[in-house]
Design goal:
The chain is built from 13 helices and 14 strands. It is of the alpha/beta class. The protein folds into 2 domains: 160 residues, Rossmann fold; 246 residues, Dihydrodipicolinate Reductase, domain 2 (2-Layer Sandwich), CATH 3.30.360. Strands 13-12-11-7-10-9-8-14 form an 8-stranded mixed β-sheet. Strands 3-2-1-4-5-6 form a 6-stranded parallel β-sheet, with helices on both faces. Helix 6 runs antiparallel to helix 12 and helix 9 packs antiparallel against helix 12. The radius of gyration is 22 Å and the shape is globular.
């Protein structure tokens, strides 16, 4: 739902008229946001709890292709009065008029059709990261958000925490400036590592759970026979369904740098340090180098694929702090937590973690941080208040789409195990027909309509 429609509903319900620019700090509308949830287990259940805890929404519909599966029971038991569905299309057909906003927190390949359907109906959407599975899908979601004038938010929740406000302020005041390179890393084990890169075929068909609507789960993706290795989070392993480590963690580590340094889309991507490449799941490790006009970003993944860091390393037991204290660098462990190092041309290096972690200058970690604004709301509350007209979302699709498109390009380089060159003017990968085709993967028959922006 766009803000004008929601506010009109409030007035129709008997609330006093007001001007959004004159809202008092303690003002609250009488009617809460009516929220529908597409995906209700795992990460979706976490999102539902966070949205519900704001006391700004009513959960009116629960939709999950595996409705009744163990992972969905928490939501079903918590909201027994909510209407339930396995197919979001049926949900919208039956109760679109009773929905203001939609949480989309299903697998990566399923984000696009549910979000597009909701926006076409004028509903606000909160979509988990990465925004969508392909470059084209991200582009279409951004265009649809503008066309239909709806409130949008991508679910990289750290974008409403400390680092968002710190990074924005430090760039604005020139404390972070003239960045020449960013080195980002996520070196935890991933689900596909259990196969050690030795995947020679898609898994054989198995009997599917009676609670699961497999056809709807596949959505726009090409047909695969059901196998448990595709579901319950393992979808992230497969090129056909997920966006790998980059899609999972990139928006938690590189979001603020990408937005506030104004990076846009890369001109090329190089890939090195590859182990375990195959045609089905993401490699065991690799290093991607995104070359933007302004700077390069290195992305390191794989449990043993560690970048050099600007402090002395030594083995130590247990997990270390996000940023080593000055004078204790020789006690720092060899394994890095997810994060980034930001290198400036004047020799200054900033070190930061993931999500909302603050950045600090290496070598001056104990120095008092320069002030920056505090966050007025969590990411979930920011979304709901934006639907109500009180705030603006911090990760709208206009911001989230180019960030996610950058990751989609990286996934293409990983899938093909070769460098690619991207032409932003034409939105193509010139001279590489195979890579270019992966920018816009045709949907399965029957799902083509979601790829058209109407009106």
């Amino acid at each position: 739902m766009n803000r004008r429609s929601f506010l009109g509903g409030i007035l129709a319900a008997g609330a006093a008229p007001f001007l959004p620019g004159c809202l008092g700090a303690k003002w609250r509308p009488r009617r809460k946001v009516n929220l529908a949830c597409v995906g209700i287990g795992c990460q979706a259940w976490y999102d539902i709890q966070q949205l519900w805890s704001t006391d700004l929404c009513n959960v009116v519909a629960l939709c999950d292709t595996d409705l009744g599966g163990e992972q969905t029971l928490n939501a079903l038991n918590k909201f027994p009065k909510a209407k339930t569905y396995r197919d979001f299309r049926r949900m919208f057909d039956e109760m679109a008029g009773g929905i203001d906003a939609v949480l989309v927190a299903n697998p990566d390949h399923s984000h696009f059709p549910a979000a597009m359907a909701a926006m076409k109906l004028g509903k606000a959407v909160y979509v988990e990261k990465p925004l969508a599975h392909t470059f084209e899908e991200c582009e279409l979601l951004a265009k649809a958000a503008e066309k239909y004038g709806v409130v949008t938010q991508m679910g990289n929740q750290g974008h409403s925490e400390g680092n968002y406000f710190q990074f924005r302020e430090y760039v604005k005041t020139g404390q972070i400036k003239d960045v020449s390179k960013i080195v980002a890393h996520m070196n935890f084990g991933r689900r596909w590592h259990k196969w050690n890169g030795k995947i020679a075929a898609y898994p054989a068909e198995q009997f599917q759970p009676v609670s699961l609507d497999w056809d709807v789960w596949l959505g726009t993706a090409r047909w695969h026979d059901y196998n448990r290795d595709y579901v319950m989070g393992d979808w992230r392993c497969w090129y056909d369904f997920g966006n790998g480590c980059l899609g999972d963690w990139g928006a938690h580590i590189l979001d603020t740098a990408h937005e506030f340094l104004g990076l846009g889309l890369p001109e090329s991507i190089e890939i090195t340090n590859v182990e375990g490449h195959n045609g089905f799941v993401f490699p065991m490790q690799d290093t991607l180098t995104f070359k933007f006009k302004k700077l390069d970003i290195e992305w390191w993944e794989g449990t043993e694929n560690l970048p050099e860091v600007p402090w002395k390393t030594a083995a130590s037991k247990g997990r270390g702090k996000d940023v080593p204290d000055s004078g204790a660098a020789d006690l720092w462990r060899t394994k890095l937590d997810p994060g980034k190092e930001i290198y400036q041309k004047d020799g200054t290096v900033w070190r930061g973690g993931s999500h909302g972690s603050l950045v600090r200058r290496v070598g001056a970690e104990r120095a008092k941080l320069a002030p920056f604004p505090e966050s007025p709301s969590t990411h979930w509350k920011n979304f709901l208040l934006s639907v109500m007209g009180e705030e603006r979302t911090r990760s709208p699709f206009s911001v989230a789409a180019p960030l996610s498109q950058t990751f989609c390009l990286g996934c293409i380089a990983q899938r093909l195990n070769r460098p690619i060159r991207f032409d932003a003017a034409t939105g193509t990968i010139p001279g590489d027909a195979e890579a270019n085709a992966l920018l816009r993967i045709p949907p399965r028959k029957g799902w083509e309509g979601f790829y058209r922006i109407e009106g």
